[in-house]
Amino acid sequence: MMGSDDPAGFEEEGLSAHRLPRFWNPRTKTYTVRQATPLDEDDLSILLSVGFYVHRHLDWRSASHWLSHQPFYVLEEDGFIQAALACPPDLPGMAWVRLYATNSPFDARQAWEALFPPVLEALQAEKGFTLAALSLHEWFSSLLLHTGFQHHHNIIVLEWTRRALHPTALPPHVSIQPMTEEDLQTVCEVDHRAFDRLWRISADEIAHAYLQSAYASVLKCHSQIIAYQISTRTGSHAHLARLAVLPEFQHQGLATRMLEDLLTEFTRRRVRTISVNTQHTNHASIALYKKAGFVLTGESFPVYVYPT
């Protein structure tokens, strides 16, 4: 469907034919760059449906959510949004490229070079900021490297396939319980102490992850939450999205207990495969998952950071 000049196909997807923009030709030089607003929601939806180059960060938010957060800039021509770039921070000083899309079939770089400077200027207003990007496409990796981003590490994927389980009994003072809304603030504190700055998420983001989870649990030691996990599910496949243990309780087998509980629960629900992502440099994490029966899939996605 991408790049089609047949409006009927888009009408089937709920998009009005008369709102479809023409392919953007950057040589026209008649565009303007401005901040996005919530009023751009419909046009942004069209751009994401017809855009030739679309990058969307893997998180729990819709693209339209970020319209009320800055920096989020759009490139507009003849009343149509032809490109968009969103990098609003989730936590102070830490931003990801949440969205980049362009309707130009010629070059993904042209619109980026118009949108990136105002976005970068807005982020630089805060000292010590970090801007990172997780690339799912080769064209996006090339664009980032051309802009000056530097390769930081790779995200790799491991997968567990349903098999016999032999969970270990928990010590008397340790329990694993379903996560509740009352746990979220403490879960956020565990998250921020367990993860490096690059991978921490805000309390609001944790709440969204919890609401969209298929199974979320906390591990308590003497009634204190010291670990948590949040997992999602699509059909017969589940994904372990977050797993964290307080630093002072690490290397005591607690993450293994959380994994065993997770695998047992999803096996009970007839889930066949479970995936998880981790950094290729996190050898302890890789060893943990392999010990639990996860195997590398061979998939790898680079993470880039803009130098500051």
Automatic annotation (TrEMBL):
SUPFAM superfamilies: Acyl-CoA N-acyltransferases (Nat) (SSF55729). Coiled coil: none annotated. InterPro entries: Acyl_CoA_acyltransferase (IPR016181), GNAT_dom (IPR000182), MshD_Acetyltransferase (IPR050276). One of its GO terms (molecular function) is protein-N-terminal-alanine acetyltransferase activity. It comes from the Bacteria. Signal peptide: none annotated. Pfam families: Acetyltransf_1. Residues 174-308 form the N-acetyltransferase domain. This is N-acetyltransferase domain-containing protein.
